[in-house]
Amino acid sequence: MKCKKGLWSPNEDKKLRDYIVNHGLGCWSFVPINAGLQRNGKSCRLRWTNYLRPGLKRGGFTKHEEQIIMTLHGMLGNKWSQMSRHLPGRSDNEIKNHWHSYLKKKSAKQENIKAKSMSVDIVNEELSSASSIKSRGSSLEPSQHMEELSAHAEPSDYSKEVHLKIPPKILFSEWLPLNSDESQEATTDGGSLSDDTQEGISMSNLQPSPELDIENSIYDLIFEDNMCPNFNIGDVRMYSCDELYYYASPSLLNSGSL
DNA sequence: AAGGAACTCAACCGCCCCAGG
DNA sequence: TCCTGGGGCGGTTGAGTTCCT
Predict the structure, then answer these.
(1) Cβ–Cβ contacts within 10 Å for residue A187, how many?
(2) Measured in angstroms, what separates residue A33's CA from nucleotide B21's C1'?
(3) How much is the average pLDDT of A54-78?
(4) Residue-level pLDDT at A72
């Protein structure tokens, strides 16, 4: 069979998602055959883990997440899959991309600043020891050196600027049923997406573990209520309650959960 | 407004590990 | 013990998008 490459079409996504929801995760080599996809097993696995898997939190990384990645990278190196285990909802590929596109430079800059400040310390040390010999010391006090250095340094959290320019988004798995009508539609197409009593994998088994922070709490709330909207919802931390209400579905609001 | 540079991100490639025959 | 196939992982690519001059 000729294997297709390149971007996945919505139709292919639907086939893969339907198959896994109905049959669960098994041997990836059989998935494309059974699901009627002209893809290889690896491609299907990648598409599922990086894009279709429920619980994926897409969009901009928060400062907290970036901090975790920076720390973990210092400890683990390029162990992206291990890092992803510490960041619920983030795939290893996403973390890797973010590192290469942004955090690597940020990390390098921080290292550079650290190295500069260390060299300034050494220079100052030498100057102060020289001043004990000569009556005149350095023209610049150590604190002045640091001021000069920090004037050229990037703001320590300039990621904030990026987040303000491009508001981070949480993308609730687009394909999840928006309402019962869609679930019904899915049933006619081979099986219900939300029927826990059905044989095979159940949606409850696919849900992410609950997190305590507000972001994930709201995520869980919407996810568990099976009301994932087919649009990107702005990162809730960036919105006022009124704006959040604007995005949330009526049934969620009526539940009084928010 | 246009064109090039820089960036983002989905996806592929190739290597490695491990289990089963 | 060797071979083979599946799965996981990290590196890399390339198309699309955004930014900058």
Answers:
(1) 14
(2) 24
(3) 83
(4) 87
Q: Are A53 and A86 within 8 A, CB to CB?
A: no
Does residue A14 carry a pLDDT above 80? Answer: yes
DSSP state of A49: I
From the CA of A113, how many Å to the C1' of B5?
Answer: 26
Point out the residue nearest to B8 (C-alpha to C1'): A101
Q: Which residues touch strand C (CB under 7 A)?
A: A 26-29, 41-42, 45, 78-82, 92-93, 96-97, 100, 165-166
Band of pLDDT at residue A128, cut at 50, 70 and 90: low
- Measured to protein CB atoms, the chain B nucleotides within 7 Å are 7-14
Please tell me whether the overall predicted TM-score, pTM, comes out greater than 0.85 for this model.
Answer: no
| Tokens, residue A159 | 């990621």
pLDDT in tens, A93-124: 888 888 888 887 777 777 667 666 766 666 66
Domains of chain A from N-terminus onward: 1-54 (1.10.10.60), 59-118 (1.10.10.60)
Distance linking the first and last C-alpha atoms of chain A: 50
Residue A190's closest CA among A36, A32, A46, A27?
A: A36
Nucleotides of C under 7 A from a protein CB: 5-12, 19
